[in-house]
Amino acid sequence: MKPIKALVGALLCQLLAACSDAPEHRKAPAGDTALPPITGELESARSVMVAPPAISRMWRYSIQQLVAENTHVEEGDVVVAFEDKPVRERLIEKKAELEQARSELANTMLKEEQVAADDRLAVEEKRAEYEKARRRAEILDHSMSRNERQKAAIDFEIASNDLQLARELEELHQRTRKLNISLAERKVEQLEAETAALQVEVDKLQVRAPIAGLVQYLPNWQGEKPSEGETVRFGQPVLQISDLSQMQVRAQADEVDKPHLFVGAEVDVTIDSAEARTMRGTIIELGSVVRDRARGDRRRVIDLLIGLEAGVEAGLKPGVTASIDVMAVRAEPVAVSAGGGQ
Question: For labeling, which of 74, 244, 265, 304 is most exposed (least CB within 10 Å)?
């Protein structure tokens, strides 16, 4: 009996040693798995939202003209025109101020030219008086009496002072002339800049398409789409222009499907339409954070973005729902120990 127990003990020891020395290995990949269809929505990879432009002293905008929805526009086409009456009235007033400032500048320049001419004439007159008084004061013979010589000296001094004052007055007028003309020019330049800015704002109220694409109206927070005659607030998007040559699908997958999804995985996208078109796509983005599906919906989902194969964009439109089938996916390999099964 003892030899049998010893033999069994030796076999158990050898089995335990073999299990403890076995190297780690990976589970074989799981078989191909078909996930439940994922619901997504078509969108353009290149789209632009159009909203009222930033206009000074304007917060509410009345839609005067609106391009029809679901029409294709080219870059530069007018897609929405807002009422420009308040800005245009300010522009008319500013243009009137500009014309008045230009007239004042012209009058200032004429006035300063006249003052400069009068100053030159006054200096010449004082110079002539100075020369006359100087020649009279330089007479040294005895043909003049003492009082006459003293009077000539006084007249010469007065003429010298008058000439000096005339020259200083001319210099003063030159400096003030430059200042007055500069102030008038600055006023004209400022009004020209303000007029140009108002003209730009008038032009901005004619909103043009920044890209070519399909026009779709954007509803407000009440779900109402814009229309001509309606008033919108600054910053409220009115419409969206989508480039239909670059379409993609944005979707949300359940958290439990995350291990089976990866960037580069091929999928089949079926468009929910009467034709039920099916096309091939590839996962190009996969969210790194799991979140709630929506406010009040606690289901955990992960975002993914699917790019479509080239040449299939014809007939596709943003906002259309699509069904995504992720086929032939494999679970991620899991490293385990042969001994513990942990």
Answer: 74
R_g over Cα of the chain: 46
User: Can you tell me the distance from the alpha carbon of 28 to that of 20, in angstroms, rounded to the nearest whole number?
Assistant: 21
| Spatial distance between the Cα atoms of 168 and 183, rounded to a whole number of angstroms | 23
Non-local CB neighbours of 336 within 8 Å, separated by 6+ positions: 24, 25, 26, 27, 342
- The encoded tokens of residue 72 equal 């294709």
Q: Domain for residue 276, yes or no? A: yes
Which tens digit of pLDDT belongs to each residue from 242-253? 998 888 999 999
Q: What is the pLDDT of residues 124-179, one digit of tens each?
A: 999 998 888 888 888 766 667 778 778 888 888 998 898 899 999 989 988 999 99
* Residue 15, domain member (yes or no): no
Tokens matching residue 274: 């009467």
Q: How far is CA 334 from the centre of its chain?
A: 48
Do residues 195 and 263 share a domain?
A: no
Q: Virtual CA dihedral for 167, 169, 171, 177, nearest 10 degrees?
A: -150
